[in-house]
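Milestone 3.1: sequence recovery, worked example.
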């Protein structure tokens, strides 16, 4: 492994990846295709952690004119064989590179202060060149300095990027390339934080100055998760070209293709793990290109290159914002809950999709939420059809990793729901041996929650654990050693040791088998002598329940 290239986890600077001899999945032909497109402003929408920032860094390193020649960074890469007409653009332009991904503050004032810092940093990066060129008049110089000192007026910050482009154009005598990464991060944050309208007003002015009324612009590239247009952020921008995950062009440039993953696995000698990588991290479709999650693939390959039997993990779910999923689950109608259950159980949903969706459209009782889930990577397209001038897509959860996000969110929501609602009826029915009430109450709770049956007994085990946890004077033990095995649940009176409840859980796909599995559960309690430890601890009254589940139905028997 010492002779192999490093795996660049968390490195988003193209130059750093090359200079540190890290493994680079070659996406440089994206440069050729951008030049060939001729678009004045291009927006790429892709999920988080799919290589947008690295690609923007690659564009900057290719196009930006600097004191040092950066062409060596591209030696041996695909763009160098694409033709002289593309190579001729290396190092020929002033470049403004702005990232808005850090604008995740709790209020508008703090977010705006962060934006001012971002502007200051970019003005500072170009300061030496602009001052050396000595092409600004006194008024322009004062204005430039005000951004360095962070004391410009609000109205000036709205036009800051456009003004910097004008200054660079004068200094270089060349039009400017503008790169704006993760442009919609402050919009998502402000929506969930409650200052959405203020952020819309700011960004509308910023983009109008930078992209619409800017004679110094050569071309611009923006990235984000969603195309935001109804708020008129891109008002009058007739030269905007959008490439979403449904676009056939540029599909292979964000994320890893099947061939790229195979090459990675071969390079690090972990080809035997390709089926696992596919099951966990594949499943996306960008245009007509099958795509793997690059962040998760790199993390997993790093893990198994050290220990081939390392366990796969949900790396992407640990980095992404799951607010949309949480809102879907928390505020879902009965119909929406049913659709989520279908997805969780390996099925699909067919829904209308809105390309030009906005955060204000997030309403779990409408169809817009499914568009958000698709464009942000939580669902994948498997079919498309046209109905009454509307595009309907059939969607599924892409892979095991994403499914774990739904699962974890559902369990968190259910935990909060059980805390907020009374569970006393179920508890009292258990200790009073009221079978009918136990069954009715559990079924009522099942109707209220979202079930995923792929884990069968594990799901129902977690479900009952949530319902029976935290009662005063009682301890709930889960899968603890007792007798010759592990009972699923034991509810134990702490102080007086009078009452103990043993629960064994079974799950079946056939409603007619509920009674059979109840009997099997009770037999398991007896055969494994689960009550032995409890008797030794002095418990005088031990109630034994066998509970069998089939989807949202259950049967309870006792002994």
């Amino acid at each position: 492994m010492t002779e192999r290239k490093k795996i660049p986890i968390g490195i988003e600077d193209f130059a750093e990846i090359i200079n540190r001899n890290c493994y680079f999945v070659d996406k440089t032909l994206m440069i050729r295709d951008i030049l060939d497109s001729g678009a004045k402003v291009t927006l790429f929408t892709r999920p988080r952690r799919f290589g947008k920032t690295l690609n923007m860094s690659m564009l900057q390193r290719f196009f930006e004119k600097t004191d040092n020649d950066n062409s060596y960074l591209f030696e041996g890469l695909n763009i160098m064989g694409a033709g002289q007409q593309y190579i001729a653009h290396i190092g020929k332009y002033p470049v403004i590179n702005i990232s808005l991904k850090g604008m995740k503050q709790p209020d508008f004032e703090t977010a705006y202060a962060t934006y001012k810092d971002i502007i200051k940093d970019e003005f500072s990066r170009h300061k030496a060149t602009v001052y050396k060129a000595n092409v600004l008049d006194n008024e322009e110089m004062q204005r430039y300095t005000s951004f360095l000192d962070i004391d410009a007026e609000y109205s000036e910050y709205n036009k800051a990027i456009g003004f910097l482009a004008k200054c660079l154009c004068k200094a270089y005598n060349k039009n400017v390339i503008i790169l704006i990464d993760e442009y919609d991060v402050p919009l998502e944050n402000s929506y969930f934080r409650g200052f959405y309208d203020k952020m819309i007003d700011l960004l509308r002015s910023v983009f109008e100055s930078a992209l619409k009324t800017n004679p110094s612009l050569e071309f611009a590239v923006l990235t984000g998760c969603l195309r935001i247009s109804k708020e008129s952020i891109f008002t009058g921008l007739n030269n905007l070209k959008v490439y979403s995950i449904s676009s056939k062009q540029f599909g292979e440039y964000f994320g890893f293709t099947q061939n790229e993953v195979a090459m990675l696995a071969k390079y690090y000698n972990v080809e035997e793990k390709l089926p696992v990588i596919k099951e966990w991290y594949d499943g996306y479709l960008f245009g007509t290109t099958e795509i793997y999650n690059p962040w998760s693939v790199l993390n997993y390959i790093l893990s198994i290159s050290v220990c081939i039997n390392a366990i796969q993990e949900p790396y992407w779910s640990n980095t992404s914002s799951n607010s949309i999923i949480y809102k879907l689950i928390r505020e879902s109608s009965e119909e929406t809950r049913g659709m989520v259950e279908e997805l969780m159980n390996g099925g699909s949903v067919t829904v209308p999709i809105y390309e030009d969706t906005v955060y204000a459209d997030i309403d779990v009782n409408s169809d817009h939420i499914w568009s958000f889930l698709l464009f942000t990577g939580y669902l994948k397209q498997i079919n498309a059809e046209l109905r009454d001038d509307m595009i309907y897509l059939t969607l599924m959860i892409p892979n095991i990793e994403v499914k774990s996000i739904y699962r974890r969110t559902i369990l968190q929501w259910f935990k909060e729901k059980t805390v907020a609602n009374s569970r006393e009826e179920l508890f009292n029915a258990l200790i009073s041996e009221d079978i009918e009430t136990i069954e009715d109450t559990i079924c009522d709770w099942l109707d209220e929650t979202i079930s995923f049956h792929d884990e069968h007994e594990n799901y129902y085990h977690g479900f009952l654990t949530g319902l029976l946890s935290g009662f005063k004077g009682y301890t709930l033990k889960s899968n603890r050693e007792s007798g010759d095995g592990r009972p699923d649940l034991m509810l134990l009176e702490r102080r007086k040791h009078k009452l103990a409840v043993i629960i064994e859980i079974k799950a079946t796909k056939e409603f007619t088998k509920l009674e059979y599995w109840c009997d099997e559960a009770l037999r398991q309690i007896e055969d494994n002598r689960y009550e032995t430890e409890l008797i030794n601890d002095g418990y005088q009254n031990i109630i034994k329940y066998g509970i069998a589940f089939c989807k949202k139905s259950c049967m309870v028997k006792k002994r």
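The chain has a mean pLDDT of 90. The first strand starts at residue 41 and ends at 45.
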